[in-house]
Design brief:
The complex is a heterotrimer of chains A (306), B (327) and C (320). Chain A is mostly helical. Chain A has helices at residues 4-9, 12-19, 21-43, 84-120, 122-137, 140-155, 157-162, 164-175, 177-192, 195-202, 207-218, 220-243, 255-263, 272-299. Chain B has helices at residues 2-30, 33-38, 44-53, 60-72, 86-121, 126-139, 143-157, 185-218, 221-228, 233-271, 276-285, 289-323; strands at 170-171, 179-180. A two-stranded antiparallel ribbon of chain B has the order 1-2. Chain B has twelve helices and two strands, in the order αααααααββααααα. Chain C has a single domain (5-230), classed as 3-Layer(aba) Sandwich (Rossmann fold). Chain C has an eight-stranded mixed beta sheet with strand order 6-7-8-3-9-10-12-11, sandwiched between helices. A four-stranded antiparallel beta sheet of chain C has the order 2-1-4-5, covered by helices on one side. In chain C, α4 crosses α5 (125-138), α5 crosses α7 and α7 (157-169) packs parallel to α8 (187-204). Chain C is globular. The chains are: A mainly alpha (306), B mainly alpha (327), C alpha/beta (320). Chains in contact: A-B, B-C. The A-B interface holds A 130, 134, 137-139, 141-142, 145-146, 149-150, 152-154, 232, 236, 239-240, 243-246, 256, 259, 263, 266-267, 269, 271, 274-275, 278, 281-282, 285-286, 289-290, 293, 306 and B 11, 15, 26, 29-30, 136-137, 139-145, 148-149, 151-152, 156, 163, 252, 255, 258-259, 261-263, 265-266, 269-270, 280-281, 284-285, 287, 289, 292, 296, 299-300, 303-304, 307.
Amino acid sequence: MKSSLQKFKESYFLYSFRQDKVAMASFIAIIIFIILAITAPWTAPMDPYDANNIDIMNSEIPPSWNEGGEAAFPLGTDNMGRDMLSTMLYGLRTSIMIGIGAVSLQALIGIFMGLSAGYLGGKTDAILMRIADIQFSFPYLMLAILVGAIFQIVFGISRYEQLAIPLLILIIGFAEWPMYARTIRASVMREKNKEYVEAAKVIGLSKSVIMVRHVLPNSLTSLMVISTIQIANAVMSEAALSFLGLGMPVTMPSLGSLIRSGFDYIFSGSWWITIFPGILLILFVLAINLLGDWLRDVLNPKLYKG
Amino acid sequence: MVAFIIRRAIQAILVMLIISLIGFSIKSNIGDPVRDLVGERVTPAERAEIADQLGLNDPFPTQYIRFVKNVLHGDFGTSLIYRKPCLEVILKHAPATIELVLGAALIIILISLPLGVFSALKPKHLFSRFIMGFSTLGVSIPVFLTAIMFIYLFSVTLGWLPSYGRGETIDIFNNGYWNSGFLTIDGLRHLILPCISLASIMLPLYIRLIRSEMMEVLETEYIKYAWAKGLSPMRIWLVHAFKNTLLPVVTVFGLQIGIMFAFTILTETVFQWQGMGFMFLEAIQRADISLLIAYLVIVASVFVLVNTVVDIFYGFINPTVRISGTK
Amino acid sequence: MPHLLELHDLEVRFALRTGDIIAIDGVDLTLDKGETLGLVGESGAGKSVTGFSIINLISKPGYISKGKIIFNGDEISSYSDEKMREIRGNKISMIFQDPMMTLNPVFTIGFQMIETLQAHRKISKADARNIALEKLKKVHIPSPEQRLEQYPHELSGGMRQRIIIAISLLTDPAIIIADEPTTALDVTIQAEIMDLLQELCESENMALILITHDLGVVSQVTERMAVMYAGKIIECGLTDQIVKHPVHPYTEGLIKSIPGTVITPGCDLVQIPGMMPTLTNIPPGCAFNPRCYLKEAICTTKTPELKDAGNGVWAACHMR
């Protein structure tokens, strides 16, 4: 018997991964970004959340290689005098946290809805999928903005800012669950009539056990592909919400709110406050998208085609 | 067919009712119509009296039915910021957004069709790889960032194009509603950056969609048969394959126009574009609940309407496409 | 007299990532004017690829790697794509397997007929339309004027295959290549379509290459036949002779496995044991040897050549 590790080592999956330089590079990049995000509190030159470190006199210092730059602030400072590099690392951390949280929530709701729809069938299926269809037909971003706006009005701005991380996870999570639900349901429908499911029925396994233990693993490739794309989308949605002022506050910035706070200063020439976090955001999302493209090509799952 | 249309219509009405119910619950829970009407400086007794006059103490269903009735008559209440009926405020902001979306849609069609078709026909060509790489980069850049970078490059650094506002507009119908930027040079110059920014988010998706649909079509038997009939490559690609590619693409395009409206909120914010998105964000910032709800209900109705129409339209062309089967 | 069509030592390869595989390995065939030839074999034997290679329309990544195809004395296998277009659908027409998939769903029958004529002749729309009508009548299609305005999905499978036959007649071709023309149709319609094809070939003096796995059809329709196995022709000659006295053990097995030929009620259906090898692992020697009841040592080492087996039949077998 081969161990599963060994099987993985000899698989086509790994082989084509090693052949594809772009996939490898983007995978490594993602790993680096995640490590940077996790270790930000220890590796960042300063803690941008701590007001004691911030000196307004240091505001809008250009990057160190520009005229007027200082070595202490390699990428310059923002309008509040925070070190850009540190603030960006913390921002990346927040963005990734919200992205992963929101996608987990999407997956949780979507898988539950998709499985119940596919497995209960009949009216439940019709109703659940109709809900998914209706929500799907609304642009998720608009939904997220609307819900965010209502939350902000209900909670008031300051309370909303305190609760921003869980709220954003909730908003973005709810805005895009139909994607998962539809994919899962499609694969349940596909697997439902296959022989192994019949066999499992014959040996007397309950429907829910069959769904979770047999059908769900067969949807994993599709889930993997969507999840990469969805994380990229979630990070972008978070950035968009923050940019509109419906996301992270400037005191606890994500990449999106950093870009927003810098936008006001771009006309006076302080481009780095916007452009650096922007580039970081693009690189991160690009790496995920490139990896997602490669995954889709290799695993070639039958994705739900809207 | 008739049964299908009726079923879809009933569904659409149901969805609208649910949305209006959600809208109304938000409005009745967090809105404060008394303040909207008379401001903060009234005594509690006066407040109670006004609330009673407005019917705010009626049971929820009664209030909801009144809300729906008013909405059906076009009465969405009064906007707190603009001190005007919400419908009027939205209608006055709509043309700016529609022009922005139209301009972007035009750019998308003009660019995505040739590029998508080319990269489907010559997938290994260097230029196709460049297109695909570029489109992956394109989907990875948030639309507001594209906008900001355009402003920095073309307005701040080069000074070629204006960075905010709509510029000189012309009142087309002379009634103060439709001010168009399409008819003046200045208006067109102001349109360029916002339209390109808005197009940038959907463009890569369309290039990919057209490419993959076209590649799928090129693999079909009827295309192989077209080759066997001895038709010229141009005819096979641009007549036979193209028309089959177009049907699904047009359908998706119809549905996705809604998404473009969502992204106008971002584009309009960056470019200070006085459209519905800009107005919507203003309403959020100043807690103008009536205007917010009016926006929600109107935009949702437009979506439901567009979706229903596209669905029904698709129902009509479906037999042709499905039975004789590309899928 | 020279043959109308000759295939000399034709080899077709598919370039895969892991290296080339040989789909057709040294096929020789001839076809005379007005002659009907059956090309028989299991799926994957290379019969369809042979058919498509004649008009140089093999699906990618396939390509002709060796050999010649000569049509009317011209080596068409060396033609450019542009020159080849004058042959395709003009001198040599094809009929595809599944009529449901062959016609473009978004164009009318008339559009698809007229464009074929206009691709090959300088002809007005009205004239092309008249020719289309005439051909539709030839394939016994009721109310042809009406059909021209219809879309493919409005017609039944049998009707569509008739229309495809009509399209292939438009330019009065010398050869029609029919690739499993009846497989996708109902049994009752299959016979009608085959009768129609046979009748047309006689009346128009066209040659027909009928690609099929159905020996019954071949024996009814064709004058000569060739049996393919794993990319090679293993037996060819006069259809009547082969059906009555097959030489190659594979052909023998094929004929015996047709229900109703040598079967009495109650006896088991005869079948050839095993499966045809995939193109990536063809056994050395005679490709059929693992399944053959006559197998000897030489069969696993030396590839048999086609040799005269008498009565106008050639077969590639060491033992017969």
